[in-house]
């Protein structure tokens, strides 16, 4: 039984992990609903949807059945020059979710590649129109868009990106309109929007696109935007003919309380990036959607104006079948009602955090709950993060703090009882920190 565990230790290189000092990885043998089961019999409540991907719970039978049935019919086919029903059906359904404003779906493999596609799509559309000078990308402070070179370029420069800085392209960096508490909050939002407005007034003819994580900067600590900022960015980009790229990789499919974060302010982007929850957490796949106008700028008798991008497993039929089944589950299990119940419970517990002496800030956006802990060494590498991670695991809950920010981002199937337990545990950990510091 333990041979495979030892094999993993000897041969696997894990992500975001310092392999020399990290404890041995936990061996998972199966999942069910909001639970993960370890080899030693331990049962964990998955409070972060296994890195934000699992929507309806682990091993959901409907999605598993759809995958099995599709595998018996067509497991894979080259997508250049061929098409299949699962991809056609999925692209139509997604377009309908965007009120047919985004009409075209370009399939790729993961969130980072969805971003790469979006950036290339925007820039080449300008080149195809004979406008090679319109090649600037605007990105926001605190942003994270993935770990490939283009995605890192539009993300916040950090210790993660430092080894590759010579390879990253320059972007125009703008302040992010994250919500700030107190009377300065509205001033900060206006400062961010004024900065963007001033730049665009004089340089809009050089800008191809602005890329944003609408409403929530996930990897930066679940930083949440000030209301109204997204719609104002949309107004400015529309005014100057600039593409708005919405990175909805984490925020899509209900995480923020609506189908997509853009829905909160009735914003229709020009390009949107989808992944993570796209297949319900079962298989890796991503989609970059765009308007018919952008798509039309690649249509030509000149073959060199085609979009030369693709992957071996583009629009894999099995992954498409999983995505379609996930959308079915949304309808059949009234998932949006479950999402509302999660947000309601978060709201009901909020004051318990706001009154705690260790809490710098507690914030909610849909199913996402984040609590920022007062700590001398804040940020992603705060020493408190690993200590809290171990504390929660010992209590039977998987939470993975972003430094001194603890967040809950649960599967939608989670029981209200288990969600309450997670809140109880986080509050218990705050008291534990107070006692340890005495």
Our count of helices gives: 13
- Order of strands in the sheet with most strands: 4-12-11-10-7-5-6
Summed up, the domain count is 2
Predict the CATH topology of the largest domain: Aspartate Aminotransferase, domain 2
The description of the largest β-sheet is: 7 strands, mixed
**What is the CATH class designation of the largest domain?**
Alpha Beta
Shape: globular
Structural class: alpha/beta
Q: Which residues form runs of ≥5 with pLDDT under 50?
A: none
CATH homology-level superfamily of the largest domain: Type I PLP-dependent aspartate aminotransferase-like (Major domain)
Summarize the structure.
The chain has 438 residues and is of the alpha/beta class.
Description:
The chain folds into 2 domains: 3-56 and 334-437, Aspartate Aminotransferase, domain 1 (Alpha-Beta Complex); 63-331, Aspartate Aminotransferase, domain 2. The chain is 38% helix and 16% strand. It has 13 helices and 16 strands. Strands 4-12-11-10-7-5-6 form a 7-stranded mixed β-sheet, with helices on both faces. The mean pLDDT is 96.
Topology:
Blueprint: H1 3-11, E1 28-32, E2 35-38, E3 43-46, H2 49-52, H3 61-73, H4 85-97, E4 104-108, H5 111-128, E5 136-140, H6 149-154, E6 172-174, H7 184-203, E7 207-212, E8 216-217, E9 223-224, H8 229-239, E10 243-247, E11 271-274, E12 286-290, H9 292-296, H10 317-332, H11 335-354, E13 359-365, E14 368-373, H12 384-394, E15 397-398, E16 405-408, H13 416-437
Parallel strand pairs: 3-15, 5-6, 5-7, 7-10, 10-11
Antiparallel strand pairs: 1-2, 2-3, 4-12, 8-9, 11-12, 13-14, 14-16
Helix pairs in contact: 3-10, 4-10, 7-8, 11-13
């Amino acid at each position: 039984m333990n041979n495979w565990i030892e094999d993993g230790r000897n041969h696997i290189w894990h992500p975001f992990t310092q392999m020399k000092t990290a404890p041995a990885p936990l061996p998972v043998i199966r999942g069910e609903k909001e639970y993960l089961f370890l080899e030693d019999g331990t049962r964990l409540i998955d409070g972060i949807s296994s890195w934000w991907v699992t929507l309806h719970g682990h091993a959901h039978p409907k999605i598993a059945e759809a995958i099995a049935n599709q595998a018996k019919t067509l497991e894979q086919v080259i997508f250049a020059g061929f098409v299949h029903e699962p991809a056609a059906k999925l692209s139509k359904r997604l377009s309908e979710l965007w009120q047919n404003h985004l009409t075209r779906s370009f399939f790729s493999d993961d969130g980072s590649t969805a971003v790469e596609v979006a950036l290339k799509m925007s820039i080449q559309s300008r080149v195809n129109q004979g406008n090679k000078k319109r090649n600037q990308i605007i990105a926001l402070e605190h942003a994270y868009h993935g770990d490939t070179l283009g995605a890192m370029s539009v993300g916040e420069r950090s210790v993660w990106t430092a080894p590759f800085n010579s390879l990253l392209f320059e972007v125009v960096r703008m302040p992010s309109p994250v919500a700030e508490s107190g009377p300065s909050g509205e001033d900060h939002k206006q400062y961010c929007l004024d900065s963007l407005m001033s730049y665009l007034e004089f340089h809009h003819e050089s800008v191809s696109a602005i890329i944003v994580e609408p409403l929530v900067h996930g990897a930066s600590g679940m930083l949440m935007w000030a209301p109204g900022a997204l719609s104002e960015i949309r107004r400015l980009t529309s005014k100057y003919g600039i593409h708005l790229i919405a990175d909805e990789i984490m925020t899509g499919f209900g995480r923020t309380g609506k189908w997509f974060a853009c829905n909160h302010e009735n914003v229709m982007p020009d390009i949107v990036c989808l992944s993570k929850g796209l297949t319900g957490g079962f298989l890796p796949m991503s989609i970059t959607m765009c308007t018919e106008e952008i798509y039309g700028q690649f249509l030509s008798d000149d073959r060199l104006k085609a979009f030369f991008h693709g992957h071996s497993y583009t629009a894999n039929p099995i992954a498409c079948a999983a995505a379609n089944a996930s959308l079915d589950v949304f309808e059949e299990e009234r998932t949006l009602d479950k999402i509302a119940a999660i947000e309601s419970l978060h709201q009901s517990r909020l004051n318990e955090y706001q009154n705690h002496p260790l809490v710098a800030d507690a914030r909610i956006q849909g199913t996402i709950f984040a609590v920022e802990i007062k700590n001398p060494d804040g940020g992603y590498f705060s020493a408190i993060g690993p200590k809290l991670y171990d504390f929660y695991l010992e209590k039977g809950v998987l939470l993975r703090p972003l430094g001194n920010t603890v967040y809950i981002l649960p599967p939608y199937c989670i029981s209200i009882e288990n969600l309450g337990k997670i809140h109880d545990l986080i509050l218990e950990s705050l008291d534990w920190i107070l006692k340890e510091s005495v």
